Amino acid sequence: MLTGLNHLTLAVTDLPRSVSFYHDLLQLRLDATWDNGAYLSLPGLWLCLCLDPLRPSVPAAEYTHFAFTVGASDFAALVQRLRAAGVAEWRDNRSEGASFYFLDPDGHKLEAHVGDLASRLQACRAKPYAGMQFYP
What we know:
The chain has helices at residues 15-25, 72-84, 117-126, and strands at 8-12, 29-34, 37-42, 45-51, 66-69, 89-91, 99-103, 109-113. It is an alpha/beta fold. It holds the Pfam family Glyoxalase.
Protein backbone atom coordinates (compact mmCIF):
# COMPACT_ATOMS: atom_id res chain seq x y z
CA MET A 1 0.00 0.00 0.00
CA LEU A 2 1.27 3.48 -0.86
CA THR A 3 1.73 5.77 2.13
CA GLY A 4 2.72 9.06 0.50
CA LEU A 5 4.79 10.79 -2.13
CA ASN A 6 8.43 9.81 -1.61
CA HIS A 7 10.37 12.30 -3.75
CA LEU A 8 10.37 14.31 -6.97
CA THR A 9 13.26 14.12 -9.44
CA LEU A 10 13.67 16.91 -11.97
CA ALA A 11 16.05 16.66 -14.92
CA VAL A 12 18.10 19.84 -15.23
CA THR A 13 20.61 21.07 -17.80
CA ASP A 14 22.78 23.26 -15.56
CA LEU A 15 23.11 21.87 -12.04
CA PRO A 16 24.70 24.91 -10.31
CA ARG A 17 22.03 27.20 -11.83
CA SER A 18 19.23 24.90 -10.65
CA VAL A 19 20.71 24.44 -7.17
CA SER A 20 20.92 28.22 -6.87
CA PHE A 21 17.31 28.61 -8.05
CA TYR A 22 15.86 26.07 -5.62
CA HIS A 23 18.19 26.83 -2.68
CA ASP A 24 18.88 30.57 -2.91
CA LEU A 25 15.69 31.84 -4.53
CA LEU A 26 13.03 29.36 -3.32
CA GLN A 27 14.90 28.67 -0.07
CA LEU A 28 14.74 24.86 -0.05
CA ARG A 29 17.29 23.31 2.29
CA LEU A 30 20.36 22.00 0.45
CA ASP A 31 21.10 18.53 1.83
CA ALA A 32 23.70 17.08 -0.58
CA THR A 33 25.33 17.65 -3.95
CA TRP A 34 27.43 15.46 -6.23
CA ASP A 35 28.81 15.74 -9.76
CA ASN A 36 25.47 15.03 -11.47
CA GLY A 37 22.84 15.88 -8.87
CA ALA A 38 21.61 17.41 -5.66
CA TYR A 39 19.14 16.70 -2.88
CA LEU A 40 17.10 19.54 -1.46
CA SER A 41 14.19 19.48 0.94
CA LEU A 42 11.28 21.17 2.61
CA PRO A 43 9.21 19.64 5.40
CA GLY A 44 7.48 16.71 3.71
CA LEU A 45 9.32 17.11 0.38
CA TRP A 46 12.50 15.51 -0.93
CA LEU A 47 13.57 17.03 -4.25
CA CYS A 48 16.29 15.49 -6.39
CA LEU A 49 17.90 17.47 -9.20
CA CYS A 50 19.52 15.22 -11.79
CA LEU A 51 21.85 16.56 -14.49
CA ASP A 52 20.55 15.75 -17.98
CA PRO A 53 22.19 18.01 -20.59
CA LEU A 54 19.88 16.64 -23.29
CA ARG A 55 16.67 17.77 -21.56
CA PRO A 56 14.82 20.37 -23.60
CA SER A 57 14.35 23.59 -21.62
CA VAL A 58 11.03 24.39 -23.26
CA PRO A 59 7.97 24.21 -20.99
CA ALA A 60 5.55 21.42 -21.87
CA ALA A 61 2.30 22.56 -23.44
CA GLU A 62 0.14 20.70 -20.92
CA TYR A 63 -0.93 21.73 -17.42
CA THR A 64 1.28 19.34 -15.41
CA HIS A 65 3.07 21.27 -12.69
CA PHE A 66 4.41 21.08 -9.13
CA ALA A 67 2.88 23.29 -6.43
CA PHE A 68 4.64 24.47 -3.29
CA THR A 69 2.74 25.64 -0.22
CA VAL A 70 3.35 29.19 0.93
CA GLY A 71 1.76 30.95 3.89
CA ALA A 72 -0.62 33.81 3.20
CA SER A 73 1.64 36.23 5.11
CA ASP A 74 4.66 35.24 2.96
CA PHE A 75 2.95 35.11 -0.44
CA ALA A 76 3.41 38.73 -1.59
CA ALA A 77 7.10 38.81 -0.59
CA LEU A 78 7.77 35.53 -2.43
CA VAL A 79 6.06 36.77 -5.60
CA GLN A 80 8.00 40.03 -5.39
CA ARG A 81 11.30 38.15 -4.95
CA LEU A 82 10.55 35.87 -7.92
CA ARG A 83 9.54 38.75 -10.17
CA ALA A 84 12.61 40.77 -9.14
CA ALA A 85 14.74 37.77 -10.15
CA GLY A 86 13.12 37.79 -13.60
CA VAL A 87 11.38 34.44 -13.20
CA ALA A 88 8.99 33.73 -16.08
CA GLU A 89 5.28 33.38 -15.33
CA TRP A 90 3.27 30.76 -17.24
CA ARG A 91 -0.35 31.20 -16.12
CA ASP A 92 -2.71 33.50 -14.25
CA ASN A 93 -4.46 32.19 -11.16
CA ARG A 94 -7.94 30.86 -11.95
CA SER A 95 -8.80 28.95 -8.81
CA GLU A 96 -9.33 29.26 -5.08
CA GLY A 97 -6.44 30.59 -3.01
CA ALA A 98 -3.64 32.89 -4.00
CA SER A 99 -1.33 31.29 -6.55
CA PHE A 100 1.71 32.35 -8.55
CA TYR A 101 2.61 30.16 -11.54
CA PHE A 102 6.25 30.33 -12.64
CA LEU A 103 8.99 28.43 -14.46
CA ASP A 104 12.29 27.16 -13.13
CA PRO A 105 15.44 27.65 -15.27
CA ASP A 106 14.73 24.43 -17.21
CA GLY A 107 11.09 25.20 -17.94
CA HIS A 108 9.54 23.02 -15.22
CA LYS A 109 6.15 24.47 -14.37
CA LEU A 110 5.85 25.45 -10.71
CA GLU A 111 3.24 27.10 -8.52
CA ALA A 112 3.37 28.81 -5.15
CA HIS A 113 -0.07 28.29 -3.57
CA VAL A 114 -1.80 29.54 -0.44
CA GLY A 115 -4.26 26.88 0.70
CA ASP A 116 -4.63 23.13 0.86
CA LEU A 117 -6.93 20.34 -0.29
CA ALA A 118 -9.49 21.15 2.40
CA SER A 119 -9.79 24.80 1.30
CA ARG A 120 -9.99 23.73 -2.35
CA LEU A 121 -12.77 21.24 -1.66
CA GLN A 122 -14.68 23.82 0.37
CA ALA A 123 -14.51 26.26 -2.56
CA CYS A 124 -15.53 23.50 -4.99
CA ARG A 125 -18.53 22.57 -2.87
CA ALA A 126 -19.66 26.20 -3.12
CA LYS A 127 -18.95 26.34 -6.87
CA PRO A 128 -18.30 22.86 -8.31
CA TYR A 129 -16.47 22.18 -11.57
CA ALA A 130 -18.60 20.74 -14.39
CA GLY A 131 -19.52 17.14 -13.56
CA MET A 132 -17.82 17.25 -10.15
CA GLN A 133 -18.68 14.58 -7.57
CA PHE A 134 -17.58 14.44 -3.94
CA TYR A 135 -16.80 11.30 -1.95
CA PRO A 136 -16.93 10.62 1.78
